[in-house]
Amino acid sequence: xxxxxxxxxxxxxxxxxxxxxxxxxxxxxxxxxxxxxxxxxxxxxxxxxxxxxxxxxxxxxxxxxxxxxxxxxxxxxxxxxxxxxxxxxxxxxxxxxxxxxxxxxxxxxxxxxxxxxxxxxxxxxxxxxxxxxxxxxxxxxxxxxxxxxxxxxxxxxxxxxxxxxxxxxxxxxxxxxxxxxxxxxxxxxxxxxxxxxxxxxxxxxxxxxxxxxxxxxxxxxxxxxxxxxxxxxxxxxx
Length: 238
What we know:
The protein has 9 helices and 2 strands; from the N terminus they run αααααααααββ. It is mostly helical. Strands 1-2 form a two-stranded antiparallel sheet. Helix 1 (7-25) packs antiparallel against helix 7 (143-162), helix 1 runs antiparallel to helix 9 and helix 8 (166-198) runs antiparallel to helix 9. It is globular.
């Protein structure tokens, strides 16, 4: 199964996956961005700071936030509007987004959405009594949703550990391994490439690096490494 993580390390990783989920899935708004800037949310992370991509991604987002002037309300609002338009262009798109966040886009024939990948991910959610809000109008295999699901599984593992149920905790860790291996890691580098090519701000270029680095670092728990030359994830040991 890989390395055994304690509650503290799991809590740190889970918080990072939850933040990564919000970065991709939630449209930026003035209050959230102001909070990120005032609290220096991306100055560091509780997990993954030993990963170069995580550090580079955090630095990109933090640097962009430092250029904001929250006291100049019109200027601040315009900068956030620019960020919102970039988020829409990258991840939503009037037609095809510049950096689509759906597993199906990268793995299904002709980038067909709502195919086998979507249904498999939906089944993973359903096993835990979860269902996305816009079922059948939005693919379940959106990267933001899937990162949020990993955070959910990590929280469930923490609950099992705190309840003394080692068997359940082991099963939940194994489920995280399988979900990442089957649905997130195979296309993550391709998605990151699109973000890196098409992002116009350090904020979203940084978000892309943070997501790839976070998944790379957490995958090490399960004996999975990232081959820089081939830009693919590989299991190095079980």
